[in-house]
Design a protein that fits this description.
By secondary structure, this protein is α+β, with helices and mostly antiparallel strands. 33% of the residues lie in helices and 29% in strands. It has ten helices and twelve strands. The strands form two sheets. Strands 1, 2, 3, 4, 5, 6, 8 and 12 form an eight-stranded mixed β-sheet that branches. The chain has a four-stranded antiparallel β-sheet with strand order 9-10-7-11, covered by helices on one side. A hairpin with a 3-residue loop joins strand 5 and strand 6. Helix 2 crosses helix 3. The radius of gyration is 19 Å and the shape is globular. The structure holds cytidine-5'-monophosphate (C5P).
């Protein structure tokens, strides 16, 4: 049996850190959004036991060292089923270490596929709980769409969808270490926090402009000076007409939100010369993540 599944990138419309926990993780409050930039994950069951993992990016880890391999191992531990031979192939489009949950999304696509192939009656909640054993962003990536993520990232509340818009996503050449950035956060000393409740009410009202004004990521406040390109890119996106611009996750990718396609396209073309990778994207709804929607 073979199944191919899109693994969508995510953007943080907001990212707030509420405090450090006793287990070393941080309590978060984040509004997450899936976008149509996606990897393609193919899972095949085979006669020969064991896991093989192939990808078109040679430097990514293989087998259990890859989050997609870890997801497969956790899935069969949780179901108690004897794991069949598995071949996982990942074609990458989402930049790596970029704040867009590329690895987590690949892991989530493996979980959705294994449920489809091996445990079709497994409830969504259980699949997300297995995701939480794989990584903090995986439960959200299993679900997708517009979601409020709290706790470590595993307490999920569905939100009304972001109104139709265009997102220009810029990935500079540098990469940021997520644990290092968390290490720089002193949550009690953060100067500003996103006004998450106001974003939720803007989404409730379907008001794109009011929503855009609430985008905010507290990691920007602790970003070391060597990542100045993040702020240059935000400025460039705003100069080119973005309604809002923000860093996603632990960066370094930055995105700008546009109501209309043409200005977004022009901004993407203008920034392509000064930024390593630039993508013109649209939001993806939850239904399109959980169905076998094929991009
Ligand atoms: O769960 P995951 O392996 O994706 O987390 C990577 C790292 O990010 C953790 O080791 C931890 O340093 C940090 N983290 C955190 N609080 C969270 C999520 C991640 O401190 N809620």
């Amino acid at each position: 049996m073979t199944h191919t599944e899109p693994a969508f990138a995510k953007l943080n419309l907001t990212l707030d850190i509420l405090g450090k926990r006793e287990d070393g993780y941080h309590n978060m409050r984040m509004v997450m959004q899936s976008i149509d930039l996606h990897d393609v994950v193919t899972v095949s069951t085979r006669e020969t036991p064991g896991l093989t993992l192939t990808t078109d990016l040679p430097f990514l880890p293989r087998g259990d060292g890859n989050i997609a391999g870890k997801a497969a191992a956790r899935f069969f531990q949780a179901t108690g089923q004897c794991a069949p031979g598995l071949a996982i192939d990942i074609r990458k489009k989402i930049p790596v270490c970029a704040g867009m949950a590329g690895g987590s999304s690949d892991g989530a696509a493996v979980l959705r596929t294994l449920r489809r192939l091996c445990a079709p009656d497994m409830p969504q909640k259980e699949l997300e709980e297995i995701g939480a054993l794989v990584g903090s962003d995986v439960p959200y990536c299993v679900r997708g769409g517009t979601v409020l993520a709290e706790g470590r990232g595993e307490i999920l509340t569905d939100l009304p969808p972001l109104p139709p818009c265009f997102l220009v996503v810029c990935k500079p050449a540098c990469s940021v270490s997520t644990p290092e950035l968390f290490g720089l956060v002193r949550s009690k000393r953060l100067r500003c926090h996103p006004y998450t409740a106001a974003l939720l009410s803007a989404l409730e009202q379907g008001d794109l402009e009011a929503a855009a004004h609430r985008f905010y990521n507290v990691f920007e406040d602790v970003l070391p000076a060597r990542y100045s390109q993040v702020f240059e890119l935000k400025g460039a996106l705003l100069e080119r007409g973005a309604m809002a611009a923000s860093m996603t996750g632990s960066g370094p990718s930055v995105f700008g939100l546009f109501r209309d396609e043409e200005p977004a396209r022009q901004a993407a073309e203008a920034l392509a010369g000064s930024c390593q990778e630039v993508f013109l994207c649209r939001p993806v709804a939850r239904e399109d993540v959980s169905s076998s929607f094929s991009f």
